[in-house]
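User: Structure tokens for this complex, please. No commentary.
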Amino acid sequence: MKTNRILPAIFLYGSLGLILLFTCIPIYLMVKIAFADPGAFMNDQAFEFTFEHLKAVFLSGNLWPALRKSFTVACATAFLSTLIAAPGAYVLAKIPGRTGYFFLMAIFFTRMFPEVGIALPISLNVARLGLFDTDAGLVLAHLIRVLPLVAWVLIGTFKSLPKDIEEAGRMDGCSKAQVLWRIVLPVARPGIMVGLIFGFLNSWDEFIYAAYLSLMNKTLPLTVFYYVNRGGWFLSSMYALIVTIPVLFFTYFFQRYLQSGYLSGAVKG
Amino acid sequence: MKTAKTISFIKKHYFEISLALPLFLYLVLFTYAPVMQVIAMSFDKSGSRPGFVFGFHHYHLIFGHFQFAKAFFNTVFIAVCGLFLELALGLYVAVQLNKRIKFRGMIRSLYILPLGIPTIVAAANMRYIFDTNGFLNSLLMKLNMITLPVDWGGGGFVTLFAVVVADMWKVTPLVMLVLLAGLQNIPEDVYEAARMDGAGPWQTFRHITLPLLKPSITMAVVIRGIDSFRIFELPLVLAGKAEPVLGTFVYAEYHEALNPYTSAAASVILLLLILFCVAAYLSLTGTKDVSYP
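Assistant:
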């Protein structure tokens, strides 16, 4: 009687344990390599902790320009995408029936376009505007990827708000703009925060547009790729760790708020 | 008559229109227009010379390219295999986490860790595993399962396997979350009714859980399917030139062969592949609308 219960439990926790091991090993390896003493690591000896690679990365002069560019572009993209998408999402959330569905699909459809395909004409056009290899050019490109995602999340937010508060506001003599500014936006603030965070994250780890639009001024993900390609494990893992930390931070501390965004597919693989 | 109607509509809703206009202008100018531009480029026989001459020249070039068929096959293989395995594994974990098991919160938090890892970092981490002197080879050597290190990046099935594993690692947590949310929406009394009628665990799963979960599965398949055809960073780092996918093929045509026109043609093929697969999936499963969360 008892073995009937124990065997499935062993199987359950065993399988979940294996899956978790598979999940954690790559991250563990990254952190370990980033702080591993090269001599001991290469000769398969016991792990020895060192700040050598961290120091090398901080002193190399490749970190700060890339960090500055990634951070500036991500902040600008987050801010602009929310500024443009929030009013649009507010209106879209109110359009009923087939028309509303048509506009939703117009946004959803942009996800089907391969980014390598859009990046090609965008890089030609951005070069024509004289913005190649600049922060502004990259923000312009990142908005292409980020706007639909943020709009998608915010439409969900605005749809979930109760309709009565707007009607009550109109009854009390507010104009449409006042209703939006004084009533809807304050209530929607958590959703807008989520939009900002998604905007930041999706710009921060973006690779394709950055690869098409950068030459000398690399972003952090491009720097990671450069070091991975060069073959040095220690530096590439340290850079990888530096890109990862803010993303992990946001994902963990705002997990509850970000959930809805993840569920609507606002995260790209 | 019609213009009068339009004008009165605009007058009535000018506030809403002006709110939504920036978003749609941006989408039209910076997303839809570039896509049209790429399609036009792919059919422009004149190339970099001024003027537009319609022709299939660039398509002829890529169909004759020695790596194009391989890239096409690899894209489909990685998307189909990856999606199937991700759904199976994601569903397994979601079903377990939907039960009241011990350490549920901790397992869930640990399991969704890869969501917080940028894709290029995931690719780098997988490189430490699938390198010739990487973690997996040294593990297999220690276990005496191989005597010579496996060349994971050298091409062939092992390289595709590495890419699929990397993609699974990064994406299964997302699939799991979508399915878990779907499972949590199934009311408890449905299961109770099934138990009363004497259904076993497998029957319950097959005839109750799966059908009720269909909207979530469709959603996961469509969203993940699109992204897995567009897979780029993982094969770029893990497979390089040995096993290209359409994404890396498009990239190499522009950045290495320096031919924007064949690059455009290849990305149009990728777009058609995605549209075809989404349409085929939706019509096969009989889904009318992509459900909105």
